[in-house]
Amino acid sequence: MPVLYDPSREINRFAASNKLAEAMAIGRPVLMNEELEAAKAMAGLNCVINTKYKDAGLAADRLREMIAAPNIYTDACAEARRYYEEVYSWEKVKFDSKVLLLGCRGI
């Protein structure tokens, strides 16, 4: 799933689109431009293919590698789903929101 934003617009560098969470929720890897703050936070994950925005077309080789070796794709899908559970799942967000808003833990 492509998650690409033109970094020449400052607000885009801080974008965290719904499609990012949705792709991970269904266990799909994402193609992100490395200028995004979200991409920086996710650097090193197997489920993220990072590229410079202007070079996004060059990521085709990495995508072809995934197609040619189904275990690489399957592993990336599993990692995407795990990352979603750790960071984006409703339970995680609800807990973090309570801590932030109410200053309490373990509710």
What's the short version?
With 107 residues, this protein is mainly α.
Explain what you see.
With 107 residues, the chain is mainly alpha-helical. It has one domain. Helices cover 50% and strands 9% of the residues. It contains 5 helices and 3 strands; from the N terminus they run βαβαβααα. Strands 1-2-3 form a 3-stranded parallel β-sheet. Strand 2, helix 2 and strand 3 form a beta-alpha-beta unit. The chain starts with a strand and ends in a 5-residue tail after the last helix.
Order of helices and strands: EHEHEHHH
Gyration radius, in Å: 15 Å
Identify the overall geometry: flat
Number of helices: 5
Low-confidence stretches: none
Taken as a percent bin, the fraction of beta residues is 5-15%
Keywords:
single chain; 107 residues; mainly alpha; 5 helices; 9% strand
Q: What order do the helices and strands come in, and which of them pair?
A:
Blueprint (H helix, E strand, L loop, with lengths): L1 E2 L14 H8 L4 E4 L3 H5 L6 E4 L8 H9 L1 H19 L1 H13 L5
Parallel strand pairs: 1-2, 2-3
Helix pairs in contact: 1-4, 3-4, 4-5
